[in-house]
Q: What sequence folds into this?
């Protein structure tokens, strides 16, 4: 893939790469719909006010304004900007349409988002996210925190990617623990714990003492919590051994045990309780999820999310939610750059109908129409070049079959179809012939399936 | 549809409306792929320079810039703006990737575009277009002008919309005719002819004389040409009767006759030669298409396009193209506002698995997994409310079936499924039960099919 795009951070795929991306998108849609999630799309733009409500990411936001702006434009509707995720727009959508939705409302949303970040591997300025969320009106049973993990495990398992691990933690567990040891500024502690992988335990311990005012013992306890990582609910015992007691901690332990217990039974090896996870704990209020591809940990999380006690609210109503978001472009970029999967051909066409002479174009269209009626993607040659040239054209495009129609001197019509890979050519009836199932559509082959 | 969106010109659909839109998008994709077109997506942004190359629509373009822009930003990559169609981005894509594409290159592209126009019925600021084009390297046989008309007739025929007519004209025909009668400024004549429907023939005749300097006879001839409209190739005879002779005119007559002759045979009544069509003739170089829904002519064209002798070019290479673009949002808005079609239910789910008690959630997930394995969209109740409440929840969401699992005192498990529309409840096996085919997916019912 020596090809570079003309605008850094805005990836574009070649047709055969796009087939892989579409396979991923189709697969996600199928899983989400099988789990009863409705599709929603929101507009690409929000008001700047709406986008910046949750915090300080304004540097990353792309503003939008007409090149020849009236003075009225922003006065009328506020300044506009491109959405940087699908959560903020969805929260607005829920508030605006809550009278038309049935709660708990299950939606998936697959759209592009934009962030003006410095482009680098795994980070684009325009990229596709695939979100699922369940939103309640007033309350939302905790069970959805379990269910959403299972939905995403299903969704990721169906993709042509390496094994993955869903890491789960819980804000209540962490915050309750910190309070239990006398550290009340949970966000500050989490900020330091978040640096563990980068700077190591010793440096974090020093920071906790210098920046957060922890004692050496408090720092050690916080680090001991962050060291716990189990594939089952044994983390509960491990936390108890640290001898900290706090009501919120107990609530968090019970919640995380429910997620990990159920998920580890239903999808063994796909989920871990990972008490070092700090990212996201500052804005989620309970469960928090992130996901890494085994062997590709440095790519960062490919599927993250959590529980918001207040995803959205109107004056009167509160809407709690839980959900996760897959970084589709990040996944597809990795799939393509590491040749984890490839399209079986670069075009949808299974058949090219060759032209015997220029006058046969309309008859060739009849053949194509008959084939398409049975779902066989077909194109017709535009000019009656030599058959060898027409076959080479099919070859270059990866079309497996070329169709020949000949009209005898007595006006009788005969058809033959050639598999240009084997060279085998056989008589065929346009109203009945069927290609082998594996040739009907362009498919996506994973490395294991790849005959090459 | 009393519901209004919070940002004028940026339509958003409710889940049941989105199902109709998805049906339209899926149907278009299917048709395009059956005809051998590859999917391509381009980034949402282009450089302003790229977007404004073709003319003076800068008022409609949305510029994009980071809210906290570095001085470097636009210096490095030029000012950015949202694309306002899919043709300009596709032309750039072809130039950038021509070494990786096989020509003639057939692509479809379904994406949102943005225009800062005043919102009104049929005109949004954010809307979806579905384009098909064939692009050649150096040359592109005229046959594709015929084929592309047939592709779009197929695509539109599969949608839940009223009968439509594809109107076709040809730039060479019009320009050749005008030259033949001594009017050399074809664009100026076309600008006046374009006003025919709005201001009438007399006013256009006056304008042709006042603004273009035509004689009364020239004006009458130009209007006589624009009055020709035939469902077959008889327009050729009608033009000849006007007694104008010009080489370019002959070329245009032959081309238009080929499109209309073939299309009227293969799709009777769907195509007309309409010599009044002037819009687009200034930038297309041969065939030009537009499409109206019968009875909804005031909606404007829902599918337009034409032939460009130079869709794109590099220093060395020229890429001619022919293609059409469907205004998906315009169509979907009309389908919904006139109730031409509706979703059979608002959610994908065919089955809600009820909870007997809170402890049965995991067993209910087993049932759901078994159903999903056979492609049956299923959700599980989150709490063990009274059955009546769980059934009402399914009812409100339009889910046709509710599943009940009971565990006997001896540990034996039995399953029943209830069709909540008929009330019929029967024993069922989660590994074998199948809903009626019409209930498997949310489907889209047209007015005729609608039992309501």
A:
């Amino acid at each position: 893939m020596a090809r570079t795009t003309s605008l850094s951070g805005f990836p574009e795929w070649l047709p055969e790469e796009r087939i892989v991306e579409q396979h991923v998108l189709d697969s996600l849609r199928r899983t989400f719909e099988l789990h009863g999630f409705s599709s929603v799309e929101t507009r690409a733009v929000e008001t700047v006010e709406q986008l910046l409500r949750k915090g300080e990411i304004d540097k990353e936001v792309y503003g939008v304004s007409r090149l020849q702006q009236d003075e009225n434009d922003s006065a009328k509707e506020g300044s506009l900007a491109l959405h940087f995720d699908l959560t903020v727009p969805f929260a607005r959508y829920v508030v605006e349409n809550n009278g038309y939705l049935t709660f708990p409302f299950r939606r998936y949303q697959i759209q592009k988002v934009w962030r003006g970040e410095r482009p680098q591997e795994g980070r684009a300025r325009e990229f596709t996210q695939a979100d699922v969320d369940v939103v309640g009106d007033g309350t939302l049973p905790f069970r959805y925190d379990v269910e959403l993990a299972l939905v995403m495990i299903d969704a990721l398992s169906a993709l042509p990617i390496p094994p993955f691990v869903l890491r789960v933690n819980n804000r209540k567990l962490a915050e309750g623990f910190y309070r239990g040891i006398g550290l009340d500024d949970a966000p500050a502690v989490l900020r330091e714990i978040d640096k563990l992988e980068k700077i190591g335990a010793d440096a974090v311990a020093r920071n906790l003492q210098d920046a957060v005012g922890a004692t050496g013992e408090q720092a050690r306890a916080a680090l001991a919590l962050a060291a716990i990582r189990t594939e089952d609910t044994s983390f509960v015992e491990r936390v108890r051994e640290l001898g900290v007691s706090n009501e919120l901690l107990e609530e968090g332990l019970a919640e995380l045990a429910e997620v990990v217990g159920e998920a580890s039974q239903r999808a063994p090896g796909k989920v871990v309780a990972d008490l070092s996870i700090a990212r996201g704990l500052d804005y989620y209020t309970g469960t928090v999820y992130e996901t890494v591809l085994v062997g590709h940990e440095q790519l960062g999380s490919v599927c993250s999310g959590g529980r918001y006690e207040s995803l959205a609210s109107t004056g009167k109503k509160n809407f709690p939610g839980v959900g996760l978001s897959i970084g589709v472009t990040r996944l597809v970029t990795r799939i393509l750059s590491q040749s984890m999967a490839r399209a079986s051909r670069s075009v949808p066409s299974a058949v090219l109908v060759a032209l015997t002479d220029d006058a046969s174009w309309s008859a060739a269209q009849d053949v194509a129409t008959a084939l398409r009626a049975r779902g066989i993607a077909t194109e017709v040659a535009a000019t009656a070049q030599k058959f060898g040239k027409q076959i080479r054209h099919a070859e270059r495009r990866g079309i497996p079959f070329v169709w020949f129609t000949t009209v005898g001197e007595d006006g009788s019509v005969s058809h033959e179809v050639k598999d240009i890979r084997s060279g085998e050519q056989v008589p065929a009836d346009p109203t009945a012939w069927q290609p082998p199932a594996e040739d009907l559509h362009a498919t996506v082959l994973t490395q294991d399936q790849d005959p090459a």
In short: Chain A has 15 helices and 19 strands. Residues 351-446 of chain A form a domain with the Rossmann fold fold (CATH 3.40.50.800).
